[in-house]
Predict the structure.
Amino acid sequence: MAPALPGQAVSTASDVVIAGLGAEAEIARLRERLERWLEQVDPELRDSLTWAFAGTPKHFRPLTLFACHRALHGEPDDRAIELAFAIELMHNMSLVIDDVLDESDERRGIDTIQKRFGPLPALMASGYLVADAGDRGAGGPGALRPRAGLRRRRGGGGGRPWGRGRWPASWAPCSRSPRWS
């Protein structure tokens, strides 16, 4: 059985599916990748980001990627693991945002980030998640890396710096949009 992330209860049902698909090795590599990432994230957000991955993960999205990779190319390689990692970051970002919007108190049997740390830290964590997911696609179409650092520094909020109440000068057209006012 693959090791859980800190504070994580491993789902028996998910492990049955993972074993049935023969993906134990890939899921173990994915979980190791998540652990390494959590060790190097910004210390200011480390607790909330670690909390984002606590609970009982199912990893169904990475399992789908691994199954498709296996069908088309054979055993999943390092690039497939990295893509699955990006998928997990994006998926967890969507869960954090969903919990903030719904004002949910619990997910996966534990407190949500927004309940434990507050809505602003939850939104900042979601911004960090999407920025790092963008880094994973830096070499491919759309090369997201130049903007990923800015998104990470802004921590979410559509790029508007928290507490400063103004847009970066280079984003002037966005600041005039009624959607972003």
Residues 12-180 form a domain with the Farnesyl Diphosphate Synthase fold (CATH 1.10.600.10). The radius of gyration is 17 Å. The first helix runs from residue 12 to 20.
